[in-house]
Amino acid sequence: MNYSYKIKRKKTKSIKVGNVMIGGDAPVSVQTMTNTITHDIESTLSQIKIIEDVGADIVRISVPDSDSTKALSKIIPAINIPVIADIHFHYKRALEAAENGAHCLRINPGNIGSKDKVSEVVEAARQNNIPIRIGVNAGSLEKHILDKYKSPTPEALFESAKYNIQILEDLNFENFKISVKASNIFTSVSAYKLLSEYCDYPLHLGITEAGSYFSGSIKSSVGLGMLLYEGIGDTIRISLSDHPKEEVKVGFELLKSLNLRDYGVTIISCPSCARQQFDVINTVKSVEAKLAHIRKPITVSIIGCVVNGPGEATMTNIGITGGGNNTHMIYVDGEKNHRIKDENLVDYLVNVIEKKVTQLHN
Question: For position 4, what pLDDT does the model report?
Answer without folding.
Answer: 65
